[in-house]
Amino acid sequence: MNFFKKHLKKIIIISIILVISGFSIYKANANTKTTDITKFNEKKETIVSPKRETIKEEITLTGSVDAATKANLQFQTSGQLAWVGIKVGDKVKKYQAIASLNKEVLKKQLQADFNTYRSALATFDDTQDDYKNEKDNLTLTDDMKRILVRSQNTLDNSVINYELQDLAVKYATLTSPINGIVTDIEQPNSGVNITPASATFSIIDPTSIYFKAQIDQEDVTRVKVGDKTTIILDSFPDKEFTSEVTYISFTPISGQTSTVYEIRFKLTGNDNQNINYRLGMDGDAIISLRQVDNTLTLPSDAVRQDKNEPYVLVKSGDSEVLTKKNVKIGIETDTTVEILEGLSENDQVVISK
């Protein structure tokens, strides 16, 4: 115990010296690591030089062909389906008759309504004659006024019923409101009794086709109506359609897991009279946002990141030592990046093989 107390001061001094020495060694090692020199490895790396070319900022969207003009036709009333004048695949013209209900019953009901109207009109005239003197002398009682009102209402209702039945006769024949192709018929057989919901005839105008896609909320703010677009359909991989954005929905598409909006593009130079392009054909829409000509570019793999600061490794002449150079970048594509500042066409930039 006496020995420990006697040498306590020396022990403390030695401990302090050891701590300081350990810290100095650690700091020296850390400095050595940060100053490691990066050298060119020709087995794993290659040299590229920036080159001048045109670079485009684009958004590619996957979508399909749809049509703007469609019609699903149904009868207004129930009845017996008398005839169907079309089949699936037929071309129809605007106002062409395509199907009809049996009109015999409807016409008889129309005649009955007309007879009811004539009777109501005669009753109305008789009532007016009965109270003509009181009306002329302004001596109508409340009872008389109510009788005249009821007579007028009965006549009005008979006119309405007749007009409704006249419309039923007219609506018993379906006509196409558009030029198009018959794509579906739910009840093609005549002679059966139908309700309005049990017989539907679908017609689509093939010349009204357009390309539609979905665009997410991050990209929708970068696009506007009129932006130039290239459409490539999977069915025609060697053909490109010059197009533009014609519509961007204001509200998002419902039922999606993320917030996306519908965007439409016209298919220019195509009247589709020969039905070469059909609904549902898949493809891509490439929207051109920005284009820069004669600008300096590098492959995307050549640009590295250090704390979100872009840089490249540059080899100088025959030296194997690589220099880190910060760069300012512009447009980025999947394979290429625009170099705005920091490099010239003569620089040797290192890229991994």
Outline:
With 353 residues, this protein is α+β, with helices and mostly antiparallel strands. It is built from six helices and 21 strands.
Q: Helices and strands, in N-to-C order?
A: HHEEEEEEHHHEEEEEHEEEEEEEEEE
Low-confidence stretches: 28-36
Radius of gyration: 42 Å
Outline the biggest β-sheet: 6 strands, antiparallel, barrel
Mean pLDDT comes to: 86
State which percent range the strand residues make up: 35-45%
Strand ordering within the main sheet: 2-11-14-13-12-15
Number of domains: 4
Give the end-to-end Cα distance, rounded to a whole number of Å.
69 Å
**How many beta-strand elements?**
21
Q: Which descriptor suits the 3D outline?
A: elongated
* Helix content estimate: 25-40%
Please give a structural write-up.
- The chain is of the alpha+beta class and about 350 residues long.
- It folds into four domains: about 1-35; about 45-55 and about 295-350, conserved putative lor/sdh protein from methanococcus maripaludis s2 fold, CATH 2.40.420.20; about 60-70 and about 205-290, Efflux pump adaptor protein, beta barrel domain (Elongation Factor Tu (Ef-tu), domain 3), CATH 2.40.30.170; about 75-205, no CATH class.
- It has six helices and 21 strands.
- β16 (about 305) and β17 (about 310-315) form a beta hairpin.
- The longest helix is centred in the middle third of the chain and has 30 residues, at about 140-170.
- It is elongated, with a radius of gyration of 42 Å.
- Mean pLDDT is about 85; it is low at about 30-35.
